[in-house]
Amino acid sequence: MFDRRHFLAGATLAGLAAPAILRAEGGIFREFPFSLGVAAGDPASDGFVIWTRLAPEPMKRHGGMPLANFPVDWEVASDGGFRDVVARGTELARPELGHSVHVEVAGLQPDRPYFYRFTAGGERSLRGRARTLPRVGAPTDALKFGVCGCQHFESGFFGAYRHLAREDLAFVYHYGDFIYEYSQDYLFDTGLPTRPVRKHAYRNLIDLGDFRLAYAQQLGDIDLQAARCTHAFLSSFDDHEIRNDWVSDKDNWKLGLDGHDPDAPPPEVFMLKKQAAMQAWYEHMPVRRSMLPRGGMVALNRELRYGDLMAMQLLDTRQYRDDQPCEDGFKPACPGVYDKNAQVLGKAQEAWLNRNLGEGGATWNALAQQVTMMSLDRRRRPEAPEKILNLDSWAGYEAPRERMLSRLEGLKNAVVLTGDEHQNFCGDLVLKNKVVGAEFVATSISSGGDGSDRRNGTDMFLSRNPELKFANDQRGYVVCDVNREAWQTHFMVVDKVTTPTNTLSKRATGIVERDVAGIRMA
Question: Residues in domain PhoD-like phosphatase metallophosphatase (predicted)?
Fold first, then answer.
């Protein structure tokens, strides 16, 4: 809680700018202002972004903060005890951005860990840690990083994040679905209704205040905070940051075979909701100012180069994509699947990707994105007569999918990293009977509940899709262990998410050998 008695007694904005030691005597806050933790993101060879948000009462309007700018001091040190502070400064936490702070730290040494912290009103945040990257093009022999996403607050606890925090990683790619925009009310695990393990504050999210509270509730999870304060994150978004299956400027939530939701807003109204959702996303992610929303749009796609070992292209498969064909869903293909003018990335982003892929210079070429690129037959029952596609994936857009695979055919060592599916699987990317790359699909942190080792019908799923090498329905994350000769993806799973603590195990490992397209399982 913000102590207004102390504030009115003399803590003017001028006074707040005084040295931290003086501010500590003022006792500005009655509650801890860094309740949502700290985070780092978008690492480079000379620095990274550090983030926090002042929210002494996170579930109250404006996080319990006054509607005024508030100074936040920050420090970056080469040691965890902050004896060697290498960078420091002060940023204003502004009410227009939910009193969030995004500091773009530069001038650091490459390929080494640093520690950071914040101070405001005499209160000090938890300590965070992040690594800088090797210099672009520098000889680099090894890299280990994580991939995660899809964390429905009501479906399960975030214990997988505590295990992720204990991993020795250079960074973590979060593919999206950081929040979910709806309450599940009831879960159906074994065909019978069960209560969610914990409840959202709101059943649906409409305006900026709603979205801010959703992120605040989510970030109150201490296991999520543990992962975010330990590793630098590459943050992305998928659909549930706004609405299920949205693309472009449309709310495309469908009602199965009945088509569009009759209550779905027109595009101009949906864009207002999208603008609020994207602002809240920015306010809570450790991303650079270049991703501040403009007109509801976020410049999400960007490139990360890790020495001369890996070039990673982070893609946006939502904002520029055409509407899903065949009224969306899981169903047989209709003529719209083969529309030659259809777009997934949009023309500008696709041209940007082609330019980056053409630069070369790295042993491994990675594409980090949201929806499955393999065109898989989703039938899990023998009586289903026709091939079933996930029309919210690349399988619903055959022309741009073939363009992408043709581009990967001209590369060596292409690996695609994907989420969205709430399950683990991996397989070969095939163009006209030729393997041109590999795709690893990472499971969810909690979405889908406890799950099981294999979904019903997994044997049929694998038999109908010979390119698939592995499928699993547990929660967790993946760790990519990359060197010059091989790319190994370890599928790390937890036994349950319906309890706060769980047990981690390595379920499987998929391997891509250098200059050999396709995956083999260890």
Answer: 145-491
Per-residue pLDDT tens digits for 26-71? 468 989 999 999 999 999 999 999 999 999 999 999 999 999 999 9
- 424 pairs with which residues across the strands? 472
What's the distance, CA 145 to chain centroid? Answer: 14
CA–CA distance, 242 with 281 (Å, rounded to integer): 10
Whole-number CA gyration radius for the chain = 23
Contacts of 396 (CB under 8 A, 6+ apart): 324, 325, 326, 328, 336, 337, 389, 390
Element (H, E) at 464: helix 458-464
How many other β-carbons are positioned within 10 Å of the β-carbon of residue 68?
14
Pairing of strands 142-148, 468-483: antiparallel
* Cβ atoms 261, 252 nearer than 8 A: no
Gap between the Cα atoms of 340 and 397, Å rounded = 9
The structure tokens listed for 481 are: 């262990």
Identify the DSSP state of 30. Answer: S
∠ Cα 160 119 61 (to 5°): 70
Is pTM beyond 0.90? Reply is yes
CB-CB contact of 447 with 150 (8 Å)? yes
Same domain, 488 and 365: yes
Rounded to whole angstroms, the Cα distance separating 27 from 187 reads 45
Structure tokens that stand for 1 in this block: 């809680």
Helix (H, G, I), strand (E, B) or coil at 84: coil
> Which tens digits make up the pLDDT trace of 461-502?
999 999 999 999 999 999 999 999 999 999 999 999 999 999
Confidence of residue 16 (pLDDT cuts 50, 70, 90): very low
What is the domain extent for residue 217?
Answer: 145-521
Which one, of 293, 334, 300, 294, lies nearest residue 317 by Cα? Answer: 300
User: Which of 103, 131, 159 lies at the terminal end of a domain, its last residue?
Assistant: 131
The answer to whether residue 477 sits within a structural domain is yes
- Of the candidates 75, 117, 72, 76, the one whose C-alpha atom is nearest the C-alpha of residue 98 is 72
The full DSSP string for 171-237 is -EEE-S--S-SB--SSEESSSSEE--SS--S-SB--SHHHHHHHHHHHHT-HHHHHHHHHSEEEE--
Are the C-beta atoms of residues 251 and 240 closer than 8 Å to each other? no
Could you say which of 81, 102, 131 is where a domain stops? 131
Tokens standing for residue 423: 């399950």
Which pLDDT value is given to residue 512?
98
Q: How confident is the model at residue 139 (pLDDT cuts 50, 70, 90)?
A: very high
Categorize the per-residue pLDDT at 13 as very low, low, confident or very high, splitting at 50, 70 and 90: very low
Q: Mean pLDDT in the chain?
A: 92
